[in-house]
């Protein structure tokens, strides 16, 4: 039998192992993963010496001082001045400049101000005179409009007294115009009954061959004495260029109708001015304006420039300051302008 006291304990062969492991743990050698965190400068990077480090620090200080000086100078430049004398001098200078500029502007406006047209008295027929002629007589725009509306609706003035009853025409103006009013009296019907047979035939033909030149075609125009195919086409073509005739005398502007021919056909011609196709002066382009026989290129450019300046041309009087247009030009063009 074996002695129990001498028998080694169970697992006694592991004791030396655990002792070794414990000693390793206590000495920090048992960590399975152990890293060395020591920082080392790579060999390819330059190493600064003591003097070089001092130079770098001095350079940074100089740059910082320059930056601070720049900021201070900028603030001092932008800071408002407290010199009252300089401020007062500047204010007086500005006020003097404003006063001078205002005086110059007032002087320019006084020189270029459009003076209202002075009344110009002359003999006229209220049944045939146009708006420009009425305006030259000193009539207001309101009275001129009423006269034209009355005539446009088929009204006719048979006496000066009837003209004096025009709505808006005061008695003082009428008395001033009365010596200059000329109205052709129509021949009474009783006198026509004593005409000779030839004269009676003439009146009959006149009533049958009246031609309204704003609507007549070439076939109807050729029925007039002295008007053939060529002259009829000239009259129609010029009518299209104008937009319509406002008077029978305009057909002579073609220079293709001799005066003797016109004098022969004039009693048989009539004009309906309401058929005129007007130019929209506030919308028409330069090319459209210059195509009108009464407007050249420079006049068209002047209208466009005035329209840009005023934004809207209200009436014919807005064109008076333009040097490109004479009074005769405006008088001819007024029936052809639409100011809407």
Mind explaining what this structure looks like?
By secondary structure, the chain is mainly alpha-helical. Helix content is 49%, strand content 2%. The chain has 15 helices and four strands. Strands 1-2 form a two-stranded parallel ribbon. The protein has a two-stranded parallel ribbon with strand order 3-4. The chain is elongated. The termini are far apart.
SSE string:
HHHHHHHHHEHHHEEHHHE
Percent in strands: under 5%
Distance between the termini: 143 Å
Strand arrangement within the widest β-sheet reads: 1-2
Oligomer: single chain
Write out key terms for the chains shown:
two-stranded parallel sheet, mainly alpha, 340 residues, 2% strand, elongated
Quick synopsis:
The protein contains 15 helices and 4 strands. With 340 residues, it is mostly helical. It has a two-stranded parallel sheet with strand order 1-2. It has a two-stranded parallel ribbon with strand order 3-4.
List the helices and strands and how they pair.
Blueprint: H1 15-26, H2 50-78, H3 84-112, H4 131-136, H5 141-152, H6 160-164, H7 171-177, H8 189-192, H9 197-208, E1 211-212, H10 218-221, H11 229-242, H12 259-265, E2 269-270, E3 279-280, H13 286-290, H14 297-310, H15 327-333, E4 337-338
Parallel strand pairs: 1-2, 3-4
């Amino acid at each position: 039998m074996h002695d129990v006291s001498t028998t080694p304990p169970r697992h006694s062969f592991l004791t030396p192992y655990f002792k070794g492991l414990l000693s390793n743990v206590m000495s920090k050698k048992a960590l399975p993963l152990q890293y060395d965190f020591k920082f080392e400068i790579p060999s390819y990077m330059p190493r600064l010496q003591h003097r070089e480090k001092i130079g770098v620090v001095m350079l940074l200080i100089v740059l910082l001082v320059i930056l601070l000086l720049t900021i201070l100078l900028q603030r001092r430049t932008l800071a408002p001045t407290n010199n009252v004398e300089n401020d007062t001098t500047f204010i007086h200078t500005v006020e003097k400049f404003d006063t001078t500029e205002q005086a110059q502007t007032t002087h320019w406006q006084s020189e270029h101000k459009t003076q209202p047209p002075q009344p110009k008295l002359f003999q006229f027929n209220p049944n045939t005179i146009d708006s420009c002629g009425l305006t030259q007589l000193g009539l207001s725009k309101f009275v001129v409009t009423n006269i034209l509306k009355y005539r446009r609706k088929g009204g006719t003035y048979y006496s000066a007294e009837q003209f004096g009853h025009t709505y808006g025409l005061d008695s003082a103006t009428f008395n001033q115009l009365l010596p200059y009013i000329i109205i052709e009296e129509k021949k009474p019907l009783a006198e026509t009954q004593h005409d000779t047979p030839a004269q009676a035939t003439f009146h009959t033909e006149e009533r049958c061959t009246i031609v309204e030149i704003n609507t007549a075609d070439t076939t109807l125009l050729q029925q007039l004495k002295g008007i053939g195919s060529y002259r009829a086409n000239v009259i129609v073509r010029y009518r299209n260029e104008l937009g319509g005739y406002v008077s029978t005398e305009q057909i002579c502007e073609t220079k293709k109708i001799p005066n003797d021919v016109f004098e022969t056909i004039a009693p048989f011609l009539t004009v309906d001015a309401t058929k005129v196709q007007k130019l929209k002066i506030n919308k028409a382009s330069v090319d459209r304006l210059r195509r009108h026989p009464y407007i050249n290129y420079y006049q068209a450019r002047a209208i466009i420039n005035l329209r840009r300046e005023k934004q809207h041309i209200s009436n014919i009087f807005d064109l008076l300051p333009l040097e490109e247009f004479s009074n005769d030009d405006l008088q001819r063009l007024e029936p052809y302008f639409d100011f809407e």
